Amino acid sequence: MRPQSRDKGADMKSWRAIVADDEENLRIGICLMLKKIWPQLDIVARAENGTEALAMIREKRPDIAFLDIQMPGMTGVAVAKKISSFCKVVFITAYDRYAVEAFENEAVDYILKPASEQRLQVTIDRLKKQLGQGTTGDGDDQRIQKVIQVMENRQAPKYLRLVKVKTGPDLRFVPVSQILYFKAEDKYTVVQTQDHEFLIKTPIKDLEGQLDPGRFWRVHRSAIVNIDQIKVIKRSFTNQMMIGFEGIDQTIAVSRSYEKLFKQM
């Protein structure tokens, strides 16, 4: 039995790629799988948010961009809108039937979270074929622009407007616009306003997906801040970035991996 033919040109040439995902573990995992499945692929940059991804793409000029759809600062869809004419795009997304249907209808590549080697292999095989044929990207650009139009015209997501908290025997609803930050503490999550501190049982991880990413930013594995409520950003004596808020003395530390969010502001 003859072995299946392969595109030797695509295998031998070292193509360049960038991987953008605000979740560090997923970003590292995708890079490791890419290295294993496609050793010739040179990952020239890794980005933690959309603004950083766009800057790196313009600087490095990669052949392929793996873009998470939901990133702070600028979404993967917004980045793709600016670069799809000269760079092949593969979207990374959590399960969203509406989004996946849009991708499939226009034959645009995507990877579902959590990424699997089997699904990634399918995407890589398609990329090798397209790159080996030397396609200009014009057709890709038209397809991606159609997907972007669908995504931009979709119904706006319904983010949390109120957070239910318990004060003694009573229940209270706190508008998210009044919340300064959420912070994980033991088995609870602190909900901090200028006047009160409440405790809820909803984990930070679950809250993140329910909050408007344009307003609420994850700045630490245990903290999400309302950027509209930030008064000052300063450095501690150990040079750690700290966020201060109007009306309270408490501050929130920013992890090194999230500092770039504020450098892009």
Structure, described:
The protein has about 260 residues and is α/β, with parallel strands linked by helices. The chain folds into two domains: about 10-155, Rossmann fold (3-Layer(aba) Sandwich), CATH 3.40.50; about 160-265, Beta Barrel (OB fold (Dihydrolipoamide Acetyltransferase, E2P)). The chain contains nine helices and 15 strands. The chain has helices spanning about 10, 25-35, 50-60, 75-85, 95-105, 115-130, 140-155, 205-210, 260-265; strands at about 15-20, 40-45, 65-70, 90-95, 110, 160-165, 170-175, 180-185, 190, 195-200, 215-220, 225, 230-235, 240-245, 250-255. It has a five-stranded parallel β-sheet, sandwiched between helices. Strands 10-9-8-12-11 form a five-stranded antiparallel β-sheet, with no helix packed on it. A hairpin with a 2-residue loop joins strand 6 and strand 7. The radius of gyration is 21 Å and the shape is elongated. The termini are far apart. The model is unreliable at about 1-10 (pLDDT under 50).
